[in-house]
Specification:
Helix 4 links the parallel strand 2 and strand 3. The chain has two domains: 120 residues, no CATH class; 119 residues, no CATH class. By secondary structure, it is mainly alpha-helical. The protein starts with a helix and ends with a helix. Helices cover 56% and strands 7% of the residues.
């Protein structure tokens, strides 16, 4: 199976990255280290970032994937959504039928002009409410640095896909996510009681001051009041986006 898989990759001019799950511990750190070693990459940055930067089409082939059963949830909910568009991940088991299906699936995917985008676009990430809130906070913190959002799980959320479609690339999804976030924040201005929350968000994330202390000063707020408003503002934006997510 592995030899055929590598031959298929070579035929299609796709880089093959092979990881044997029998040789690693079923932990996120061990998996990341194994991936980095397979890339011969000693850099401190994420191996996924290295793959994204290279732009080279490649497939991560995990053999004996049943050994990683304890990581199943983390791989599906965290690792897979972070895969760059030029990377596909194939999980192969030791059962003969499963191995054959993996190979046939790989053949079909290689026949697509944009196999990785098509495969990733079809998978919508379902986040818990707490994970969703964490992801929204990450959007706000990096709002003026959209390139930092390429690994944000909200790019594969229902509310983003509902807006831009399943075939949208990462750039389009980032634009959509930023627009949804800013629109939610701006809607706070329609309520006299919540206008102050928008102002805090604006001076913190959308048109940020050099520090939160300076943002509080520009808004003529004590720092404790500023922090209280900021917490409430983030909560309100998260609530609005969450409502869209569960109703999409």
């Amino acid at each position: 199976m592995l030899q055929e898989f590598n031959a298929l990759c070579e035929q299609e001019q796709v880089k093959a990255i092979n990881i044997d799950a029998r040789n690693i511990d079923p932990s996120p750190d061990s998996f990341t280290i194994a991936l980095r070693q397979s890339l011969d990459d000693s850099a401190e940055n994420s191996p996924l970032e290295a793959l994204a930067t290279s732009g080279e089409r490649c497939v991560i082939h995990v053999d004996t994937s049943e050994k990683l059963a304890p990581l199943d949830g983390g791989l599906r909910e965290t690792f897979l959504p972070q895969l760059p568009e030029n990377v596909l991940m194939v999980m192969a088991g030791r059962e003969p039928l499963m191995a054959w299906l993996d190979l046939m699936g790989a053949r079909e995917l290689f026949q697509r002009e944009d196999y990785s985008s098509a495969s990733r676009a079809s998978a919508t990430v379902v986040l818990s409410e707490s994970d969703f809130a964490t992801a929204v906070q990450a959007v706000l913190r990096t709002f003026i640095r959209p390139e930092a959002l390429r690994n944000n799980p909200l790019l594969n959320s229902r509310l983003v896909i509902e807006q831009c479609g399943v075939n949208a690339n990462a750039g389009r999804r980032i634009e959509t996510l930023l627009s949804l976030t800013q629109n939610a924040a701006e809607s706070l201005q329609s309520s006299p009681r919540e206008t102050k929350f928008y102002r805090v968000l604006h001076r913190t994330y959308f048109n940020p001051a050099e520090s939160q202390e300076l943002a509080a000063e520009a808004l003529h707020l004590s720092f404790s009041t500023y922090r209280r408003y900021l917490k409430s503002a983030i909560m309100r934006v998260t609530e609005m986006l969450w409502d869209k997510e569960i109703s999409a």
